[in-house]
Amino acid sequence: MPEPEIRKTALQIETIWHEGGPAAEVPLKKGAALVVIKNPFAGAYHAEIAGFMDDLKPLGLRMARELIDALGGDAAAIEGYGKGAIVGAAGEIEHGALWHVPGGYAMRELLPASAAIVPSTKKLGGPGTRLDVPITHSNASYVRSHFDAMEVGLADAPKADELLLVLVMTTGPRIHARVGGLKAEDVKGEDGLR
């Protein structure tokens, strides 16, 4: 397949100092890299679509690098991640699933501590649709303090024949996280869980 046809890209960055309690010494940063591309499968059923994942891999790496840079440039400072896709109305949910490998592996390739599975979500929607992208600790899925989400979306995307692809990263736990469980500093990093 040809290289993905990009209509637009966006970066969304949040800096969170507190959630009603005391201000953190170091704020949490959450960021999302979004890209809107033409859906080459829109409008008809195609039995063979998996090859498009290879075409998306360079895009995933570019988005991951841009997001790391937007969050300060230090890949080792990234502690959480997630990914997602919004499929325009002329597509099908399986087209969003094409983002699993190129989106997830792009982040895992660039982040030094990233043994955990990259959580994901996808849905069908039109322009202005919002997506809650799940976030977990990048090296151990059982770290409760990093269970989070980031709401993303663009006012004019996706159009019916488009895909909106998203990567999300964070620099730490939820502000004021205090519900117990495995602590980030106790992660062994052996199995992606603990």
Give the arrangement of secondary structure elements.
Blueprint lengths: L5 E11 L11 E11 L13 H19 L9 E8 L5 H5 L2 H11 L9 E5 L6 E7 L10 E5 L9 E9 L24
Parallel strand pairs: 3-4
Antiparallel strand pairs: 1-2, 2-7, 3-5, 3-7, 5-6
Helix pairs in contact: 1-3
Description:
This protein is α+β, with helices and mostly antiparallel strands. It has a single domain (6-16, 27-169), classed as 2-Layer Sandwich (60s Ribosomal Protein L30, Chain: A). 18% of the residues lie in helices and 29% in strands. Strands 1, 2, 3, 4, 5, 6 and 7 form a 7-stranded mixed sheet that branches. Helix 1 (52-70) crosses helix 3. The chain is globular. The mean pLDDT is 95. This is Amino acid synthesis family protein.
Q: State the end-to-end distance.
A: 39 Å
Give helix and strand order, one letter per element, not per position: EEHEHHEEEE
In total, the number of strands is: 7
Instruction: Provide the low-confidence segments as ranges.
Output: none
CATH class equals Alpha Beta
CATH superfamily: BB2672
Percentage of residues in helical conformation? 10-25%
CATH architectural name: 2-Layer Sandwich
Oligomer: single chain
Strand-residue fraction? 25-35%
- Look at the structure and give the mean pLDDT: 95
Give structural attributes.
194 residues; 29% strand; alpha+beta; seven-stranded mixed sheet; 3 helices; globular; 60s Ribosomal Protein L30, Chain: A
What's this entry about, in short?
The chain is built from three helices and seven strands.
